[in-house]
Amino acid sequence: MRNIYVVTHTQSEHHIDGLVGGWYDTWLTDLGQVQAQSVAKRLGTLVAGADVELISSDLKRAAQTAEIIGESIGVSAKLVTGLRENSYGRADGRKQNWLDKRIIVAPDDDRLDHLVVEGAESKRTFAKRIYASMAALPEKSDVIVVTHGYALTFVIASWIGMHIEDVGYVNFSATPGGLTHLREDDFFKNRAVQFINDVSHLP
What we know:
CATH superfamily: Phosphoglycerate mutase-like
Order of helices and strands: EHHEHEHHEHEE
Low-confidence stretches: none
Helix content: 25-40%
CATH class: Alpha Beta
CATH architecture: 3-Layer(aba) Sandwich
């Protein structure tokens, strides 16, 4: 079996400051660090004895989550720009209510190329880089991927073979420190989603 364990980074400073995340770079809070330790403990049980690789978004909040996990299970994280969260352009780092007042909802006939705010990534651009990052994952029995809440949607969509042209409406909810388990069997190469956004390990 091939197993991919996807972690959404734990609580970050932008969460408690009410700021738009995107590519705005913030560290974990104290609680976020505790949550990351809990994620690491859970993963240590899941990957015990396996040859594991750890791949993470290079944004601070994800990289710090990955560092805590890596220290716990004895592996170093490889940082990948392609696993970053969606960029919200000039809204990155601003108050969430600033974006809420300016956001333009995508029309039904332009779900992929529409920009929710000036300078933001389109859903198509975002999905393409997440898909490319997933395609580049090592062919190991166990891989841990640390990414972001919105990015998780396209990680899963990529895994199950959803065409990018069909991702306009798809959304999988995620919370800080959530764990998702993706599995591929060795014989049929069927891909399964074992669970999504499990937070039972969090304090």
